[in-house]
Design brief:
The chain has 451 residues and is α+β, with helices and mostly antiparallel strands. The chain folds into 3 domains: 90 residues, no CATH class; 218 residues, no CATH class; 91 residues, no CATH class. Helices cover 51% and strands 8% of the residues. A 5-stranded antiparallel sheet has the order 4-3-2-1-7, covered by helices on one side. The protein has a two-stranded antiparallel ribbon with strand order 5-6. The longest helix is centred in the middle third of the chain and has 27 residues. 32% of the residues are buried.
Length: 451
């Protein structure tokens, strides 16, 4: 006798409707239609006599981005023995595909698969992508998210994951010190905020290149990283070959990679050094894989199913524009726009001082209703409001010496606002702010594939 849950599965009309609306495959529906693990095993053995077919469906997402494995948690059955059987079956069937890290990408395999015309732009781009992918693989020997980690014990994986997180944090801090041109220690919150501004503002090409070289040098030295580090090294190779390359992230997924000549639909080439894939842009749906981390009974599993077109969307990073800042801070206030307008009118190493110190103070003042946002700025005519107050950076930089930084900065704001008020009576800017440092707790318990 079946439960009502199982009966709904056997209703052919509702079953067909479910497939269309949810994007579920048969394996999704078998799991959702079973109340007991023993019944689920029976249905699976009855419907999947071919192991390859089971593996294919175990690697397919539904319209919510769920693999069949993700749906097992919906089953309320206390039979531990049967549960372990089902879990192990799907853990073994879910794809974990990727070129081993100790192997190089093979050019002949790429050439035979796509058969580009000798000397064509596609062949040139494929070869460049192959070279860039192997350049990254030559340096990076360990990854906490690569399928190779499935053979690691939990302690080894945790140690590697933490080491890569620490590497990333150290690189961010180094960049912060370089941009601010000061020797200060930063906490996690301060570092993350400044690093976001590196991505959100337009840098002098020389400074941008210096930052890239600093990152790449550290990655090469550590010889470890995940998809972000692989992408950085591949881009570094292509940059020095004077090849046009664009970084991409996977929206609704957890992965990033690069595309050579990304605006060329016919000859653009995707480079995913982490997984070992180099393919034409038009073949991405058949080659691009998403990173999935799954825990069961104290063990961490890495899976790499193919993306689901329409759900997983390759999206170009837009470095040097406010759109990336909006992506990083989706709940940004109008003050953030004002700060970016100000920062992009300032010298590179000085704009971050504005964003790091002044903006948090102004946000607190806005929150406490000590100033009105409409009196603070006018994006269309910023020079007519408070922009001039922020552009005199010489005195502000001198405030970074000693422990009196925040208090001195507040005094500087008061002094400048009084000067502005006397010169321009229609601008209202009243300061009565007692700042306290905010605590920010960060946890790195979950593996983070992208940088």
């Amino acid at each position: 006798m079946h439960s009502s849950r199982e009966a709904s599965f056997e209703d052919s009309d509702s079953y067909e409707d479910s497939l269309v609306i949810s994007g579920n495959n048969i394996l999704h529906e078998l799991i959702l239609g079973s109340s007991y693990y023993s019944h689920m095993m029976y249905y699976i053995s009855l419907n999947f006599t071919d192991v390859d077919q089971l593996k294919e469906m175990a690697g397919e997402y539904n319209n919510k981005g769920e693999l069949p494995l993700h749906l097992l948690s919906t089953v309320e059955d206390d039979d531990i023995q049967e549960r372990n059987k089902v879990y192990q079956l799907l853990l073994d069937a879910t794809p974990s595909v990727g070129l081993p890290l100790n192997e190089m990408i093979d050019w002949e395999t790429i050439r035979q698969m796509y058969q580009p015309i000798p000397g064509s732009q596609l062949e040139k781009n494929l070869r460049r992508g192959w070279e860039a992918g192997n350049y990254a693989r030559k340096w990076i020997q360990e990854s906490s998210t690569h399928p190779d980690t499935n053979r690691y014990d939990r302690d080894s994986l945790v140690e590697l994951t933490n080491a890569i997180d620490d590497d990333r944090q150290a690189r961010k801090e180094k960049i912060c010190r370089y941009l601010l041109n000061i020797d200060l220690q930063f906490d996690l919150y301060q570092t993350d905020q400044i690093y976001k501004l590196v991505l959100a503002t337009e840098l002098n090409p020389d400074i941008a290149e210096n930052i890239m070289e600093m990152n790449v040098s550290d990655i090469k030295d550590k010889k470890r990283g995940d998809c972000g580090e692989f992408r950085a090294l591949a881009n570094h190779y292509l940059y020095h070959q004077k090849v046009k390359v664009q970084s991409y992230r996977l929206e609704n997924g957890d992965h990033n990679f690069s595309i050579i000549d990304h605006e060329d639909e016919e000859n653009g080439v995707a480079v995913d050094a982490w997984s070992g894939e180099v393919c034409p842009k038009w073949d991405l749906n058949n080659k691009l894989r998403n990173f999935v981390s799954y825990s069961y009974q104290g063990k961490e599993y890495t899976f790499t199913p193919l993306i689901k077109p329409g759900f997983h969307i390759p999206t170009a990073y837009t470095f040097g524009s406010t759109s990336l800042y909006a992506y990083l801070e989706p709940k940004k206030s109008p003050l953030d726009d004002f700060a970016i307008v100000c920062a992009n009118k300032m010298p590179d190493k000085e704009k971050f001082v504005l964003m790091w110190f002044i903006v948090p103070i102004l946000k607190n003042m806005l929150k406490d209703k000590q100033i009105e946002i409409q009196n603070l700025y006018d994006l269309k005519q910023p020079e007519k409001t408070l922009l001039p107050m922020f552009l005199d950076t010489t005195s502000r930089l001198s405030l970074l010496e000693g422990d009196r930084t925040i208090n001195a900065l507040e005094d500087e704001i008061v002094r400048k606002q009084n000067k502005e008020k006397n010169k321009n009576r229609h601008t209202k800017f009243f300061v009565s702010y007692n700042g306290t440092e905010s605590d920010s707790a960060h946890s790195f318990k979950k593996r983070r594939h992208t940088m």
